[in-house]
Amino acid sequence: MKAVHFDHPGPPDVLKVIDLKVPEINKKQLLINVKYAGINRPDIVQRQGNYPAPPGHSTILGLEVSGIVKKIGSEVKKFKVGDRVAALVNGGGYAECCVAEEEITFKIPKNISLQHAATIPECYFTVWSNLVMRGKLTENQKVLVHGGTSGIGISALQILRLFKSDVFTTVGTDSKKKFCKELGVQNIFNYNKEDFFEEIKIREKDGIDIILDFVGGDYISKNLNLLKNDGKLINIGFQNGSKVNLNLMKVMLKRLTITGSTLRVRNTSFKAQILEQLKKFVFPYFENGKIKCYIDSVFKIDDVIMSHKRLEDGNHIGKIVLKI
Ligand SMILES: NC(=O)c1ccc[n+]([C@@H]2O[C@H](COP(=O)([O-])OP(=O)(O)OC[C@H]3O[C@@H](n4cnc5c(N)ncnc54)[C@H](OP(=O)(O)O)[C@@H]3O)[C@@H](O)[C@H]2O)c1
Fold it and tell me: Which end of the chain is more exposed for a tag (fewer CB within 10 A), N or C?
């Protein structure tokens, strides 16, 4: 089968398409004939050598796929050969065939294409588990999401709409700002022109309930300052660095929670719990069109280098997808 491979970490040019043996499945797994694979920032970090596959996971890039079931293990009950599915996978997505665990594979919600389905797993599992399960999000809270037009950001903004949250977001350009406005967000700050910290401090005297951040760096102390009493800072990335000099006094005085998580290393049963909640609370909104999958661009597997360059340039709005 065709699969994307790199011999050593480095820039996008290290990626190449090679021929590999089709992987074996165990009795609880399925083999998916991959049609599309979603591209995520963690793939870039893995390619750069800073996010190796956990033990037992495929070293091939790709954490989410959509496609057609090609083979099932002897104990698989919920799927049959020929089903249209999407899955959160333990690596291996950038390939013609990918192994998926039954418990974190799902039938594609009605009205969603295979191309769109590939963009769902990584971001929706991550956002739901952090904002709702970890952050205990409830209705009508004030929530700040940094990077509103990233894959993660767009998923978060749409989930927050279901919770009638008062949403704040940051973006790097005016066109990204316009996009977030069309998504219904009221408070959008272009961080290259506006100081989100000063603006929110003036507008929201009582502060913010929850902040979802993957920027880190100097945002960490600004985030802590913007939170209200008992507020929560949830970090799911540190694009601008994780080492900072911090005055933690506000954590004590405002009873703040600083938390975070990373999805990939969690076990299948935890990921299956997230999927059950998504099926119940989010998938109906994919089916009725209230939540949409926003795709920035689609690249053929042979153009995988271009797809990584597009993500790294940072001009994308929404997800980048690989057509296998
Ligand atoms: N912990 C987990 O389980 C987990 C899982 C998935 C992803 N992640 C993390 O989540 C982040 C987003 O992932 P993704 O796949 O959605 O990536 P993505 O689409 O490439 O998003 C990255 C975004 O960061 C924004 N950004 C950069 N600097 C910023 C700043 N100073 N302020 C606000 N926004 C800024 C960029 O947009 P602008 O042009 O607006 O700057 C860009 O759109 C990554 O850091 C990734 O590693 C974590």
Answer: N
- Are 268 and 255 in the same domain? no
143 shares a domain with 106? no
Are residues 190 and 299 located together in one domain of the fold? no
> Is 236 a pocket residue for ligand 1 (Cβ < 6 Å)?
yes
Which residues constitute the domain of residue 142?
A: 124-260
Helices (H), 118-248: 121-127, 151-162, 174-182, 196-203, 219-226
Same domain for 314 and 248 = no
Q: What is the pTM of this model?
A: 0.97
Is the minimum distance from the CB of 42 to ligand 1 under 6 angstroms?
Answer: yes
pLDDT in tens, 128-156: 999 999 999 999 999 999 999 999 999 99
Decide the pairing of beta strands 29-39 and 64-72.
Answer: antiparallel
Ligand 1 proximity of 237 Cβ (cutoff 6 Å): yes
